[in-house]
C-alpha cells in the first residue's frame, strides 16, 4: 500500500504528466455529459418508454455509454469515424495514390486524415438515417416536432456529435494520456458496467449468490488470461557488431527484439465490431426489404452462430491486417542493418526481413484465434443464463477493449515515470503496451 501511495505521488509530481491526466479526465467528463443531451424535438420523458436495445444494438448502446438508448447527440458515438478509418486503411493497400500519401510523411498523413473526416460525414449521414428509424417512434416527439425539417436538423446534430467525439479523441491523444479514440470507447463501456452488475445481481438474488460468486471468479481468471496473452512476447535475439568508441574496440551488445503475440492490440476488435454494426443499420434502414431485414435480424443477434462465425473471422483477418500496418519487417531490418545489428545465423537485409515476417506470421495466428474465441464468449455466457447486458463484459469485445486500453495507458504513464527517474508502477518487470513493439 505504501508503494502504491508513493507511485501515486510520483505520478502527480510530474507537471506534464499531471496536466495530461487532468486534461484527459476533463475531456472524458465532457464526453459523458454529451451522452445525456437529447436530440432536438425529442421528449426525454418518453425515451424510457421505448425500452432498451437488444442484440447488436445493445452492443452499440454499451459502446456509446448509453447514448444510443438516450437518443443523445452522441448517439452514434465514434463508430462512424472508425468505419471511415478502416476504409482509408484498406485503400492504402489497394490504391497507389493513397500508398504514395502514406509514404509522404506528415503531409501525406494530414491528407489521409482529411479524407477520413470527409468519409466520416458520409457514413454518419447513412447511419443516422437508420438510427432515427430504429430508435424513434411517433409518440416520442414534442408536438409539431415530427416532420422532415426536424429530421434534417436531427441528422445534422448527429453528424456534429460524431465529429465532436472525433475531435475529443484527437485532443486526448495529442494533449492527454493514452489513445483518445480507444479511451472514448472504453469510458462508454465502463459507464455501463455498474448497471450490468446491478441487473445480474437483481436477476440472481440472494439464493443465487453462489452462482454469482462462480461468475465473478470465472471473470477474474478470464481477465488474468487476457492480460497474460496481451503481454506475451516472442523475443528475437539481436547481436550488434564490434564498434570503435574513444579509440577502443567495444564488444557488440546482445539485445532482444520483442514481437508481441497480439501486436495489433485492441484495434482488430474495434474494427471488426464497427463492421458488424453495418448489417443492423442496413436492416433498420430498409425494413420493407425482406433480404435486408433478414440479414439485419440474423446479424443483430450476438448469440446466433452466423453472427459469431462472421465476427470471429473478421477479428482474425483484421488482426493480420493491423499487424501488417503497425509492424513493418522491412523497416526493422533496415534499421538493424543501419545500426550494425543482426540476428545470429540470419543474413542482414532481405533475409532478416523475411525471418521477422515469418516469426510474426506464426505468432499472429494463435493470437488472432485467441482474440476471436474470447470475443464470442459473451454468446456462451448469455446462453448459460447470464444477463445479456452483463454478458457483454464476460470476455468479449468490452473486456478486451477495457484491458487493452488500460494496459496502453499504464504503459505511457510508466514511460513518464522512468523518464523522470522514478520507479515504475510494477515492483518487478514492466507494464508492456503496443509501444514496446516499436524497437530499434
Description:
The protein has 18 helices and five strands. A hairpin with a 2-residue loop joins strand 2 (about 245) and strand 3 (about 250). The protein is about 70% helix and about 5% strand. The protein has about 450 residues and is mainly alpha-helical. Helix 13 runs antiparallel to helix 15 (about 350-375). Residues about 435-440 have low confidence and may be disordered. The strands form two sheets. Strands 4-1-5 form a three-stranded antiparallel β-sheet. A two-stranded antiparallel sheet has the order 2-3.
What labels would you give this structure?
440 residues, mainly alpha, three-stranded antiparallel beta sheet, two-stranded antiparallel sheet, 18 helices, globular, disordered C terminus
Amino acid at each position: 500500500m505504501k508503494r502504491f501511495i508513493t507511485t501515486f505521488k510520483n505520478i502527480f509530481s510530474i507537471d506534464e504528466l499531471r496536466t495530461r491526466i487532468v486534461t484527459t479526465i476533463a475531456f472524458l467528463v465532457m464526453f459523458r455529459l454529451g451522452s445525456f443531451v437529447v436530440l432536438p424535438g425529442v421528449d426525454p420523458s418518453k425515451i424510457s418508454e421505448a425500452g432498451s436495445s437488444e442484440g447488436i444494438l445493445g452492443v452499440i448502446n454499451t459502446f456509446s455509454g448509453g447514448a444510443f438508448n438516450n437518443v443523445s447527440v452522441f448517439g452514434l458515438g465514434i463508430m462512424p469515424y472508425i468505419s471511415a478509418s478502416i476504409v482509408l486503411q484498406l485503400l492504402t493497400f489497394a490504391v497507389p495514390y493513397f500508398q504514395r500519401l502514406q509514404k509522404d510523411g506528415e503531409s501525406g498523413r494530414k491528407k489521409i486524415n482529411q479524407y477520413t473526416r470527409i468519409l466520416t460525414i458520409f457514413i454518419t449521414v447513412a447511419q443516422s438515417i437508420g438510427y432515427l428509424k430504429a430508435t424513434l417512434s411517433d409518440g416520442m416527439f414534442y408536438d409539431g416536432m415530427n416532420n422532415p425539417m426536424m429530421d434534417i436538423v436531427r441528422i445534422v446534430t448527429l453528424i456534429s456529435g460524431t465529429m465532436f467525439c472525433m475531435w475529443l479523441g484527437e485532443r486526448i491523444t495529442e494533449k492527454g494520456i493514452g489513445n483518445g479514440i480507444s479511451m472514448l470507447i472504453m469510458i462508454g463501456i465502463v459507464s455501463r458496467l455498474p448497471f450490468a452488475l446491478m441487473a445480474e445481481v437483481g436477476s440472481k438474488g440472494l439464493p443465487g449468490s453462489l452462482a454469482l460468486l462462480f461468475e465473478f471468479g470465472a471473470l477474474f481468471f478470464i481477465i488474468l488470461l487476457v492480460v497474460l496473452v496481451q503481454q506475451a512476447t516472442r523475443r528475437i535475439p539481436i547481436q550488434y557488431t564490434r564498434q570503435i568508441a574513444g579509440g577502443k574496440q567495444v564488444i557488440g551488445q546482445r539485445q532482444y527484439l520483442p514481437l508481441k503475440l497480439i501486436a495489433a492490440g485492441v484495434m482488430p476488435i474495434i474494427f471488426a465490431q464497427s463492421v458488424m454494426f453495418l448489417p443492423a443499420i442496413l436492416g433498420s434502414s430498409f425494413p420493407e426489404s425482406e433480404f435486408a431485414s433478414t440479414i439485419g435480424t440474423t446479424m443483430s443477434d450476438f448469440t446466433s452462430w452466423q453472427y459469431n462465425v462472421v465476427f470471429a473471422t473478421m477479428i482474425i483477418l483484421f488482426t493480420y491486417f493491423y499487424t501488417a500496418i503497425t509492424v513493418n519487417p522491412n523497416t526493422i531490418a533496415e534499421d538493424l542493418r543501419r545500426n550494425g545489428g543482426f540476428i545470429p545465423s540470419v543474413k542482414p537485409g532481405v533475409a532478416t526481413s523475411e525471418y521477422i515476417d515469418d516469426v510474426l506470421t506464426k505468432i499472429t495466428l494463435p493470437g488472432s484465434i485467441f482474440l476471436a474465441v474470447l470475443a464470442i464468449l459473451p454468446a456462451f455466457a448469455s446462453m448459460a443464463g447470464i444477463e445479456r447486458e452483463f454478458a457483454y463484459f464476460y470476455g468479449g469485445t468490452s473486456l478486451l477493449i477495457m484491458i487493452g486500453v488500460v494496459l496502453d495507458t499504464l504503459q505511457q504513464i510508466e514511460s513518464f515515470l522512468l523518464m523522470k527517474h522514478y520507479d515504475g508502477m510494477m515492483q518487478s518487470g514492466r507494464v508492456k503496451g503496443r509501444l514496446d513493439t516499436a524497437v530499434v
